[in-house]
Structure formats: structure tokens, C-alpha cells
Amino acid sequence: MFYVSEQRNIIDIYHPAAQEYHSLLNSIGEFCEEEILHGAKRIDQEEIFPADNLVETTKRGLFALPFPEEYNGGGKPFPVYIAALEMLAKACANTALHVSIQGMICEGIRLFGDDRMKMRLLKEKGLVEGRSLIAFALTEPCCGSDAKSIQSRAVQMGDRYVLNGSKMMITNPGESDYALVFAATRRGISAFVVSTAEHGFKVMKTMPKLGFRGNQLAAIQLEECEVAREDLLGEEGRGLEYAKHILNVGRITIAAIGTGIAQAAFEKSVNYSKKRKAFGESISQFQLVQEKLSDMATQISAARLLTYYAGFLKDQGKDIALAASQAKLFSSESAIKVCDHAIQIHGGYGYTDAYDVHRHWRDARLLTIGEGTSEMLKLLIAHLALKDE
Ligand SMILES: Cc1cc2nc3c(=O)[nH]c(=O)nc-3n(C[C@H](O)[C@H](O)[C@H](O)COP(=O)(O)OP(=O)(O)OC[C@H]3O[C@@H](n4cnc5c(N)ncnc54)[C@H](O)[C@@H]3O)c2cc1C
């Protein structure tokens, strides 16, 4: 079964009367297994943006799951969304990545946008449902972790802002209808929802990369790019504060993707180890292989618990900075270890394309970098620990 028993047990902890969520998650699991999984290898190998999968994902209501019904959201608890994302990532991490990015931006608009922006973008333009797509554009050639030093500028001219500058390593700007763009204004860094069709918003050449090859990675050039005053998210000068909230939500979803990727690699390893024979026995009988399987299972369980717990805190309206950072740090680092073990258990075949195992490792490798590197998350976790003292 794609919806594994441990996911079910955790959902039960947070929602004791969760029968309706189990049947929903079971059906999402079947959808992931029957309709998404089979295309994942091809999406990676041929570097295909998973547009068809995203359309199906929209139809199934996965993008919309945790958002309020007034924006055509599914109104479901965040851990249910996390469980769905985990399964989507297990089937095809390339498909899960855009759902995750879009989810965190929608949450930012929900939290900080005015009523008009929320109705227009979340509901009418269908961002909550995934009917239109949005990219997140913070990183610049000069700065990633050091986001406060970004150099793009937005100058107000009457009822418009004019943006100039460049963004680097942005996921799917050319596939999206909008981008949430951060730029410095008179009062500090601000965030703008920019239509990618806007004159002056130019998507540059795609950058080849190690994993997540179905997602485009590109630079953006902003040249006298005009946006209306109403496309400013919230208040001028509060962009970095908003980015922190948005990224906290994103970190929980990235942790879910890490867990899903690791689960896929683990299940392949269990199956392979039972079938592969050496010295007259299945390799699953060798204790050194069992040690790896044991480590993998334990890392995944711990990552899953931290991740769903952070999702639960979010639903409770609690501060998620610590839990989201811990979940993302642990899940992403674990996913790399688990996928590395998976390659080793598959022996030489793990290094080839035969069982499509190295895709999981290549995808997992991004997760300790994007949306806060492991180093930056460790600094943040230590900062929060020292503050509490
Ligand atoms: C596939 C992919 C997709 C991406 N998608 C997006 C996207 O959609 N939108 C977006 O805005 N960005 C995106 N990024 C950019 C990503 O968020 C940045 O790469 C990341 O934040 C790190 O920034 P950097 O690459 O500039 O590294 P740097 O910030 O230059 O860091 C380089 C190294 O130094 C370390 N370091 C930096 N400062 C410290 C410190 N104070 N203490 C200790 N170590 C430190 C870092 O941890 C890292 O190991 C993406 C990147 C990739 C690879």
C-alpha cells in the first residue's frame, strides 16, 4: 500500500477521529501509485516539466488541500497535506517540488496579502488549486543565504513600482504565470507578485543540474519591469519578514519531500535485497545489509515524526520556526544517507540507471541547500536554543 501504516499511525495521533482522512489519503496514495509513479524516471531522464502530472494533481485537489474553502481550498489539516506531499514525492519528486513551492507562496499571500489580492490570486486566478502557477524569486547572483543583501531595486512611480535587477537559480519561472519577487525599496526589502508575461520580466537560459531535472532552474532579468501598487504583498519594507514565514512553511513541505524520496529508496532496497542472491543466499540475510536497512527505516521514521509534528504545530497556530527548521534539517540530511545506502544495497546496479535508484540520491541532494542550507538552519536552531536559555 502506498499510504504506509506509519503515516496512518501519526495521523491518528494528531486527529483521533481521522477515518475520513485515512480514506482520502488512501485514495491519494492510489492516485500517486497508479498515475504518477510510472512517468517519474522519464521525467528525470528526459528533463520534462511534469505539467500533465500537475494538471492531474490539481484535479485531485492536492495543491488546495490545506487552504480555506473560501479560496476553493480543501480545508484539511496540515499533517494530511504533508502526508499527501510525502506520497507525491515518493512517486515523483519532480511533481511534488512545484506543489510544495506553490503551497508556501499561497500561504504567504493568505497571511500577508490584503483581501483583494487574496480573492484575485488565490481564488480567481486559481493559485490555491494549481490552475495557475507561481515561482519564488529571492536568490540573486550575489546572495542566497545572505538574503538581506539582495541588490534588485523597486522604485515607486505614482501607482506603480518599477523593478530592476537579476535573480539566480529560480525554480520554474518560465513555466509559471506569476513570480513572487523580492526587491529593495525605500523602506527595505519588499515582495511583489509579478506576472511573468510582464514586459521587462525575462527568463534567461535554463541551468543544467544534478537532480530535480524535471524542474526548470533559471535566472531572471528584471528590466524596467512595471508592477501595480496593488501587487505589493502586504507592506513595503516587510518582505524579509514575510519570506521567513513563507520559508518556514516551505521547510515543512521540503521535509515531507525528503521523507517521500527516502521512503521510495528504502522500499526499492527492501525488495531488491530479498531478490538479489549472493553466496547462495538473499543479500537481505547478511547482517551488514540489514544494518543499512535498519538505519534507513529509523531515519525515515524520525524524519516523518519531526515533519508531521511541525505540521501539527502549524495547525495549532504555534510558532513553527524551530520545528520546521529541525524537520527540514533532519529530513534532508537523512534522505541523502538513506538514498546513499540504497545505492550501496543495489551494488553496481545502483550506480547504473537499471533500478532508477540514483535519481533519488540526486533529488535528495538539493534538499540540504534550497530553502535554507543545513548550515543556516543549524545556526538558526542554535540561536533559538540560546535565546531560550
Ligand atoms: C535546484 C535549486 C533550486 C532553487 N530554487 C530556488 C527558488 O525557487 N527560489 C529562490 O529564491 N532560490 C532558489 N534556489 C537557490 C537556493 O535557495 C540557494 O542556492 C541557497 O539559499 C544557498 O544560497 P547560495 O547558493 O547563494 O549559497 P551561499 O549562501 O553562497 O552559501 C554557500 C555555502 O556557504 C555556507 N554559508 C553561507 N553563510 C554561512 C554562515 N553564516 N555560516 C556558515 N555557513 C555559511 C552555506 O551553507 C553554503 O554551504 C535554488 C537552488 C537550487 C540549487
Give a written overview of the molecule:
Belongs to the acyl-CoA dehydrogenase family. Residues 237-383 form the Acyl-CoA dehydrogenase/oxidase C-terminal domain. Keywords: FAD, Flavoprotein, Oxidoreductase. Its EC number is 1.3.8.1. Its cofactor is FAD. The structure is a single chain. The chain has 389 residues and is an alpha+beta fold. The chain folds into three domains: 5-124, Butyryl-Coa Dehydrogenase, subunit A, domain 1 (Orthogonal Bundle), CATH 1.10.540.10; 134-236, Butyryl-CoA Dehydrogenase, subunit A, domain 2, CATH 2.40.110.10; 240-388, Up-down Bundle (Butyryl-CoA Dehydrogenase, subunit A, domain 3). It contains 13 helices and nine strands. The chain has helices spanning 5-14, 19-36, 40-45, 51-59, 78-91, 93-112, 115-124, 239-275, 287-315, 321-345, 347-351, 358-366, 374-388; strands at 134-137, 153-157, 160-171, 178-185, 188-195, 201-206, 217-228, 277-278, 281-282. The strands form three sheets. The chain has a four-stranded antiparallel β-sheet with strand order 2-3-7-6, with no helix packed on it. Strands 1-4-5 form a three-stranded mixed β-sheet, covered by helices on one side. The model has no long low-confidence stretch (mean pLDDT 97). The protein binds flavin-adenine dinucleotide. Residues 135-139, 143-146, 169-171, 209, 212, 217, 366, 369-370, 373, 375-376, 379 line the site of flavin-adenine dinucleotide (FAD).
